From TrEMBL:
GO molecular function (one): galactosyltransferase activity
InterPro entries associated with the record: DUF4094 (IPR025298), Glyco_trans_31 (IPR002659)
Signal peptide segment: none
Record's protein name: Hexosyltransferase
Keyword Transferase: yes
Subcellular locations according to the entry: Golgi apparatus membrane
Pathway: Protein modification; protein glycosylation
Phylogenetic lineage: Eukaryota, Viridiplantae, Streptophyta, Embryophyta, Tracheophyta
Keyword annotations from UniProtKB, A to Z: Glycosyltransferase, Golgi apparatus, Manganese, Membrane, Signal-anchor, Transferase, Transmembrane, Transmembrane helix
Length: 407
């Protein structure tokens, strides 16, 4: 038995013997050079050295992307001659970094190309012009309804400037504020005429080609962003409900942090339950799409207030005919963006509670950008309480005028 088991033990030992350092080095180097050989087909897209240098200095969409420079080629030749293992690993890491950078550049170019197609009416939805539009830092669209005149007046008496101050805010600070509303089911009827009269007096409306209705908020949101990006060339577009208190100075300063970030989505991110039971508030008729009963939605900004950057508003404008609308407007927006390369910013300053919460934070030096009551999905009895909340939690009338939008 011992004579039989000894060879088996020797075989096991042979199988367990580790590879030598030289063999590992040869295997790594071979894998690296095979990768370079396979990626060689991409060099067809690159320009000759002289053309590459010219292309790198141009900014047009027709410029070619240079995957490797002359220095890279020389470095690779020396690497092949020397075959230093440390140099090989450094080159692998360098290549991975270059690929990640290229992926980001391609993603940005794809969005720009989509906008260019829309300009030529080659996109799915409305075109997105970039020239000739008034410049702005942020467009604040306040979602409102025909029956909400008292709410609108409560905002005009607190955080929404009136008349000349509104025009000056737009011209000097790049902050556009408008009440957003569509038309009634019978255009030109009494409801529409009442808005016409109010608009003639206040000049603070943005009228949409949309039939008003609570169950049409997803459509209204989609149309609002498309109309806003076609009217103003802004860095950000905000949607806020007309029963929310906002400090415009704080809002704009917080958004300014992300001005250089492409594809940014700012709000109080949440993940609430998917309500499949009929008859309850926020019922989701398409609950089956979100998995088994009891599941939660994907992370998205709560609907009281949120902001998106211009490139995302352009995306919505271009693709609006094929953007699916769920029952809840905030879920719809989250669904439109969840599959994109988007930075989700969870900013809790946009969802402070009403006094004493926002008042204590103000006293501590942390002024809130927006305040409302979660229990009411807005400020409870906002018409009666807005002035008191503004007095307790407002940033002061001069704060917004200290905002300096970067060029």
């Amino acid at each position: 038995m011992m004579a039989l088991t000894q060879p088996q033990s020797e075989k096991k030992a042979a199988r367990a013997r580790p590879m030598s350092g030289k063999a590992v080095l040869v295997l790594c180097a071979a894998s690296f050079f095979v990768g370079l050989l396979l990626s060689g087909r991409m060099t067809i897209l690159t320009s000759p050295p002289s053309a590459t240098r010219g292309a790198s200095s141009s900014s047009g969409h027709g410029s070619r992307i240079a995957l490797f420079s002359d220095d890279d080629c020389e470095h690779r030749r020396k690497l092949e001659e020397g075959s230093n293992p440390n140099d090989v690993m450094k080159e692998v890491s360098r290549t991975h970094q270059a690929i990640r950078s290229l992926d980001k550049s391609v993603s940005s170019l794809e969005m720009e190309l989509a906008v260019e197609r829309a300009k030529r009416n080659g996109g799915l939805g409305a075109s997105v012009p970039s020239k000739g539009l008034p410049k702005a830092f942020v467009v604040v669209g306040i979602n409102t309804a025909f029956s909400s005149k008292k709410r609108r007046d409560s905002l005009r008496d607190t955080w929404v400037p009136r008349g000349e101050k509104l025009r000056r805010l737009e011209k000097e600070k790049g902050i556009v504020v408008r009440f957003v509303i569509g038309h009634s089911a019978t255009p030109g009827g009494a409801l529409d005429r009442a808005i016409d009269v109010e608009e003639a007096e206040t000049r603070d409306f943005m009228r949409l080609d949309h039939v008003e209705g609570y169950h049409e908020l997803s459509s209204k949101t989609r149309i609002y962003f498309a109309a806003a990006v076609a009217t103003w060339d802004a860095a950000f577009y905000v949607k806020v409900d007309d029963d929310v208190h906002v400090n415009l100075g704080m809002l704009t300063n917080r958004l300014a942090r992300y001005r250089t970030t492409p594809r940014v989505y700012v709000g109080c991110m949440k993940s609430g339950p998917v309500l499949s039971q009929k008859g309850v508030k926020y019922h989701e008729p398409e609950s089956w799409k979100f998995g088994d009963e009891g599941n939660k939605y994907f992370r998205h900004a709560t609907g009281q207030i949120y902001a998106i950057s211009r490139d995302l508003a352009s995306y919505i404008s271009i693709n609006q005919p094929i953007l699916h609308r769920f029952a809840n407007e905030d879920v719809s927006l989250g669904a439109w963006l969840i599959g994109l390369e988007v930075e989700h910013v969870d900013d809790r300053s946009l969802c402070c509670a009403t006094p004493p919460d926002c008042e204590w934070k103000k006293q501590a030096g942390n002024v809130c950008a927006a305040s409302f009551d979660w229990s009411c999905s807005g400020i409870c009895k906002s018409v009666d309480r807005m002035r008191a909340i503004h007095s307790a939690c407002g940033e002061g009338d001069g704060a917004v005028w200290n905002f300096a939008a970067a060029a």
